[in-house]
Amino acid sequence: MARTTAGCTIDETFVGKANAATRRCERIAIMKLDDMNPRKRIVRKSLGICLGMALGAIATAVTEAAAQQPPHVDPAISGSRDGWRREGRNRSAPPPVQGQGAIPRPPAGQGAGVPPVPEFRSYDGSGNNVLHPLWGTPGVNYLRERSGAFYADGKSAPAGANRPSARVISNAVAAQGDVSTVDERGLSTCLYEFGQFLDHDIGLAAGGFTEAFDISVPAGDPWFDPASTGTKKIWMDRSAFNPATGTSNPREQLNTVTSFIDGSQIYGVDRARAAWLRAGTGGKLKVRATEFGDMLPLNDGTLANDDPLGNPVTSLVVAGDVRANEQPGLTTFHTVFLREHNMQAARIATRHPEWDDERVFQEARRFVIAELQAIVNNEFLPALFGRPLPRYAGYRPNVNPGLSNVFAAAAYRNGHSMVGPDIGVIDENFVEIDSLPLQSVFFNPGVIASVQGIDPIVRYFAVNTQQLNDTMIVDPLRNFLFGPPGAGGFDLGALNIQRGRDHGLPDYNTVRRDFGLKPVRSFAQITSNVSVAASLAALYKDVNNIDAWVGMLAEDHLPGSSLGATHNAVLRAQFMALRDGDRFWYQNFAFNPQQLGEIERTRLSDILMRNTSVTGLQPRVFFAEDLSAP
Fold this sequence. Notes:
Blueprint: E1 2-5, E2 8-11, H1 12-26, H2 41-66, E3 140-141, H3 166-173, H4 189-202, E4 215-216, E5 233-234, E6 254-255, H5 264-267, H6 271-277, E7 288-290, E8 293-295, H7 328-351, H8 357-385, H9 405-409, E9 422-426, E10 432-437, H10 447-450, H11 455-463, H12 475-478, H13 492-502, H14 508-514, H15 530-540, H16 548-554, H17 565-580, H18 593-601, H19 604-610
Antiparallel strand pairs: 1-2, 3-6, 4-5, 7-8, 9-10
């Protein structure tokens, strides 16, 4: 059997080989988008070999397909944003292909008055776009902007060789120390916690590569080189990349999850993980019953989990994404949406007792995905941007929903600056009774039971104001990420800078040009903060040589927004592509007016309260409020 995509026929045999290799790797290949897990190299080597098997199989499929391509290149499938903007509204195309993660479509009911069975989206995103069925699926390249890649040698050597060490830059502009810089618009902790939950739905860069790209630590660094040896390094390996790139053409990194907002962090991106997560009855997901309510199930040792601390695998919880154990706020959101799915499944099963487990599960899944999309569209993005996206005008099949490299490796890492140094424990009267230092709760899901479940954390989401979106990062992320310096500790700010160079991202001014903005001519045009502008000038010398992540975080915010102009442009373009390029977007597909109205009326605060014992949350939960009794 063969599938056709943009004039290119791909034999399913080759795709099958790629999928098989990927499945063999899943149990050991731990991969991260947000670089919160630099691995020890003895482990990385085996991961790299395993990942190479999968990527090699994928490359074989691509090579075989390329041999059958017509001589022209369709700009609608190019690796740049140019293809995203092409118009197209053909909605009468044939059904999508059934990929490795596809959901077999049940037969439609027969007879008058029996509603047709809706098409359910695949787990791996295949077939979402019927003309380009691999768009948005795991294993595709991150997209480049019009300017392309900026490797030092044009092919693969990291960018930024003439810039200071990433740790030097982090020390100069990201060291927050004990200073609290709360968001000027009152955005709540809920925003960055939900933002991370969303991040893990749409992106996960391929890891397991063994090419070292360590960060030089300046002599006398108070955290990483107090003895002034001048030899200390912060370990980092380069991201894995498409093996068909990097030699005669620029190296391209891979996204290993679906880029769609499709609840993959809840349900998984392949049928094997999705099947493990299911209870098998009533259309529900597996739970672990506790005195604090239903919790995520524990790993039985058969599924991949991200864990740099070496915890017993059976002590870790399992969700659709491998990163669910990173920190309690993230685990809380996973738990809430697990409960939401099961609540919806119970409701659907009651209304339709004739439906089997599969039908109830898929109906509940599509409803929860729609709720997730509506929250992103109606609450999360307007809170962050200060205004909503342009009005939805329908599905655009020539919009590529893939993630751009500058979004994944720079712009959407802004959440790291919003994180506070601890997690508050808030009682039923909305009074803080304890706090959990952030460095003590990484990959420690058991801490949730110690605070009597997720309810105190949900309350913290609502009442605490997040940190300002700026260049500064709190010490638990900048010096103690997963342990003290020299014993597991990393600098997330430095890792973000280094990762951008690894991926060959363009400099800040080039990103501005890519998104239709005029380049700045001085450091003072980036920020009115005299101290930050002076630090940037001392570090970079040339305003055309700034790392994109640093420049975007340093920007003065737009009026009424928590983002600067460049940051805003990159994020808005990406989220519009994720919306407009998704055939299954909730406003476009298979919901009747009553269902659509229910989805639109449901706020995140509703979902948080109906899946916990928490009451009294403010409707606009992305803006902090003091909810304690007067």
